[in-house]
Amino acid sequence: MSNKTLAILKPDCVRKNLIGKVVSQIQEAGFKVSGLKMVHLTEDSAKGFYEVHSERPFFNDLIAYMTSGPCVPIALEKENAVEDFRKLIGATDPTKAAEGTIRKLYAESIQENIVHGSDSDENAAKEISHFFTRKELLEINGWK
Ligand code: ADP
Ligand code: MG
Question: Whole-prediction pTM value?
Answer without folding.
Answer: 0.96
